[in-house]
Structure formats: structure tokens, C-alpha cells
Amino acid sequence: MTAKPPSSDIDIDLDAPGKRLGTIRLVHSDNRHAFAVIPVPIAVIANGDGPGVMLSGGTHGDEYEGQAVMHALLRELRPEDIQGRLYILPALNYPAVLDGARCSPLDGGNLNRVFPGNPQGGPTAALAHVVARDILPRCRYAMDIHSGGRSGQYTPCAYLHWGGDAAHKRAKLEGARAFGMPSAVIAGSAANAGSMTAECDRQGVVMISAEIGGGGAIDRALLAQTRAGVRRCLAHWGVLPREPRPALASPRLLQLLGKPGSVMAETDGIFEPLRGIDEQVNAGDPAGLVYPIGEIGRAAAVARFHAAGVVITERTGALVRRGDLLYNLARPVTEAELGLT
């Protein structure tokens, strides 16, 4: 009889009341990790009746805002503070977090592109499978906090995959309002089917993704806004008590333009940005200059916008290669245009 290969699992009870710290035991064997179990940290806080919520950071290892928020939450919250169950994953793509990289150094996998995962696949697919198999089915809501990472800055926003029926979409938009960032970016046809948000849609989990800052650093003011926003979401979802607070302005709704709104470097060189986050631009406007490094007699290449819209991401690294993303655009959109009346 052939022995069943070991599979990745979780070493703590996900349902019992109380507060427990444990790991996703990611089974992996390669030249560095012979028969290893890589310990991906997870915390569970459970008390009474209420919804299950997954909170995660570090899906991309060089995005630090979510990691800091999750670490603070799991230290601040006690079981008696909540109603329901919180699953907190502060360093979800743990190998990438340790490497300070967007993708896993184990297999080059992008965790936000491989859902629902594969238990017999590489370590990134196996990790996605544990989340999809063991955590998301226990949840009604989820929140995953991203940023622009080392290479970019993102306007502070809720980021919504636009799947599900009208009620599901409305629940996401209401969560974005509770989160309280200035913008809510809608990823429609530009969304990726292998993302965590797409998997949440498939499982009926109302998920708010977020993009907060970037540049491989943490902005103190943005971090404070994000912490407050996560707590507001938890109160909106019934996990934390609602607290009196001033009414928040509804976020502006922006729909990601996808390929027409992406500006890429057309040559290797040094990038000088000519526009900034949240600026309104028109098709044909200059976006930036790329100076060819070794060709001092050659004029700078002018990168231009191909569509009108609002700048939501900007490249932060000055050294660029041909094909690097310099800017992303979105366009203002109404609830009616999104199918919500």
C-alpha cells in the first residue's frame, strides 16, 4: 500500500473558545528544507456567537502595513472583547515575508494568484489550499491588507473584487464605507481569478481587500488610519462593539481601467515621474521621463497616459527596466454603473 504524502495543516483548534497562537504547518522539501515544516503564524480569538472573520497581512512579503496592523490587533484583543471568531494571519506568505520579497523564495509563487491552491502543488499553492479549505469556510467576512510594496505607492483605498450577486456586492461596498478610506477601487474585468478575493467570492465570503501606501516602508499616519478602519469594519460586521463616531464621508468610487490605464516603461533607464497619486490626467498627457543610462546622446523617452483617469498607483523605484509598471489609472464610477441602485 502506497503511503499518503504528508499534507500541510493547522496545529491549533480553530473553533474552541479562547485565544490561541499556532501555525499553519507548511510541509515542504527542497535543497534548503529537507522534510521541513515551515511554520506560518496564525492566531484564533473566539468568544460567543458571531461571524467568523479572517484578517491577513503579508500576502506579499514586502507589503508591511497589514503585517503591523495584524500584530497590533492580536496583542490588543482578548476573547471577551469580541463576539464570534477572528482568524489573524499577520505574515500569511511567511517565506516571502522573511525574504522581504513580493513572492515566495521557495518556488517564486505569488500567493495572490494561485487560489484555490493545490495540496500536492508547490508550497505557495499548498498554503493557498489550507486557507481555502480550512479557514475561509469558517468565515462570513475577510480582510486582506496590501500596499504598493517596494516598487510602488498606492492611493489609500478599499479594493473590491466585483464578483457575486447584487447583495454580495452591496455588502462589500458597505464594508468599504465602514473601513473609511478616501477611495474604493473596483476591480471588474481586470480582477484575477486566482486572487484571494476571487476565492472569497466563490465561497460567498464578503471580502474587503485594501491598498495602503507602499515603498517598502510604513507611514505612521496611514498606519493609524488603517488600524482604526479595521476596527470599524469589525464593529460593522458585529465582532466588536459599535462605538459612537462622527459620520464618515462615502468613499469616491473608482473602477480600475486595466490595460488601457497602465503606463509601462518602454526602455531601461532612470524614471522621473511627472504626475502623482490622485491626480486627474488625460489621454496623451506626459506621465514621466525615462533617461537612458549609458546613452548620453539620446533624448529621454517620454511615457504617456493612454486613457483619461485618476492616478491610483505610482512607481517609487527610480531604476526601471523595459516593461516595468510606472502608473495605473482608474475612472470615477457611480453605483448605478456598478449595477447597484
Provide an overview of this structure.
This protein has 341 residues and is α+β, with helices and mostly antiparallel strands. It folds into 2 domains: 9-255, 3-Layer(aba) Sandwich (Aminopeptidase), CATH 3.40.630; 257-332, RNA polymerase II/Efflux pump adaptor protein, barrel-sandwich hybrid domain (OB fold (Dihydrolipoamide Acetyltransferase, E2P)). Helix content is 21%, strand content 32%. The protein contains 6 helices and 18 strands. The protein has helices at residues 65-76, 94-99, 123-135, 166-179, 196-203, 220-236, and strands at 9-10, 18-28, 36-47, 52-57, 84-89, 141-146, 152-161, 183-187, 206-214, 252-256, 262-264, 269-273, 280-281, 286-291, 301-304, 309-315, 319-320, 325-332. The strands form 2 sheets. Strands 7-8-10-18-16 form a 5-stranded mixed β-barrel. The protein is globular. The protein starts with 8 loop residues before the first strand and ends in a 9-residue tail after the last strand.
Topology:
Blueprint (H helix, E strand, L loop, with lengths): L8 E2 L7 E11 L7 E12 L4 E6 L7 H12 L7 E6 L4 H6 L23 H13 L5 E6 L5 E10 L4 H14 L3 E5 L8 H8 L2 E9 L5 H17 L15 E5 L5 E3 L4 E5 L6 E2 L4 E6 L9 E4 L4 E7 L3 E2 L4 E8 L9
Parallel strand pairs: 4-5, 4-6, 6-9, 7-8, 8-10
Antiparallel strand pairs: 1-2, 2-3, 3-5, 7-9, 7-16, 10-18, 11-18, 12-14, 12-17, 13-16, 14-15, 16-18
Helix pairs in contact: 1-6, 4-6
Unreliable residue stretches:
none
CA-atom Rg in angstroms: 21 Å
DSSP strand content: 25-35%
Number of strands: 18
N-to-C SSE series?
EEEEHEHHEEHEHEHEEEEEEEEE
Globular, elongated, flat, extended or rod-shaped: what is the shape?
Answer: globular
